[in-house]
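Before the break, one more example. Copy the sequence into your notebook; we will annotate it together after we see the structure.
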Amino acid sequence: MKKKQEKEIENADQDFDPSAQSSTTVIVNAKEPEKKHLGLKISLGLLTFVMVAVSVYSLMLFIIDSTKKNKSQTYLTFDGMSVNETRQFLSSYGKTNQKKIKDYGFVGTKLYFSETHITPKTIENGSFFSSNDIYTDIGLFDVLHNARNEEHTSMLNQKCYLDFSLVSSGNYLVYPYSGELSSTEQNIAFYSIDEEDAISETIYTLPDEKTGERKRISFLNNSLSPYTVIKVNEAGNQLPSDYYDMVLFYQEYVDDSHLQISDASYAKLVSIQKEIESQTQYKVKVCHTLQEALKVRATYSFALAQNTIEKPVMTFLGDYASTLSSSTFKEGSLQGYDNIPEIREVTGYLGKGSLSYYGITGNDTEKASFYRYGKEGYLVNDETSSVLDVMAML
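Here is what the structure looks like once it is written out:
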């Protein structure tokens, strides 16, 4: 038995070939780098494929988005003119010195334009346009009559806006104003707003005292059209259901106190509303709070003071200094802006409303969708006559 086991062991030793073992090991080690190299190629291929797919997808989204924008934007035409007729009219005017508006905003029916950012210092210094230019103002060009309109800014006289309540019906372009302009002069560089998204907003003037007729002001700008177009049209004696001449509400913020409006105070608001509407052709909206007033489309805003004030208070943008007062921050992040929340917030964009500046009372209001189209705000005593006295000046 023992001899048989030794024989089997001997045969097993004879079957064992060290060279074959070594050869097998070498073959295995030689194939591993090839497998790793193949795996790396596959990984890089997949990564490249994913990157290309993502790039193509992003490009498709960009094209789709651009297509949507172009579909939603059409070339702005003038009333009574086709696209070709509008293009032909504009082609006769110089484009060499075309200007871009960097900042703009409405306060009531007043439009503020600037090649730079509009701030209280801009208002104070009249630095709306480049000091290198020979002009300091902007004017309206009447397209349908092919002539300039009388309405223009006057920086030297601190009139830094275009008031569309004074503009007659027509289609208008904005141009650099430097004085008298002949209707035959062709070297005019019209403005456009430097913004890709289309702008299409509508505001309304107060009713005419004699006829009750209002004007509708359409403010238009898009990337397909070379210039900003402003249309003024007769709008009858009725406002849209969601638009008002003025909004009324009680002052909420007095010093550091945030006051709640009582039922009695609200009832007085309603009483004043009825008196105003019975004596005038104004459409008036009464609101419980400042926040509610911000969401109402209106040309003017009147906050009724909790305590008697000597003079009505206007926005820092106002120009009735001899009759009204203003109240602004003397320092800090809102230096120069209105420090009365009921005026600042309804002014919207140009008044830095709803921006939640730290330590600024009442600045945490929610922005309205028409943020750049603010109301012309006032703080007055809680009497019908106080409101109407201010309206008489406008």
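The CA atoms of residues 207 and 214 lie 5 Å apart. The chain has eight helices and 20 strands. Try to locate both features in your own notes.
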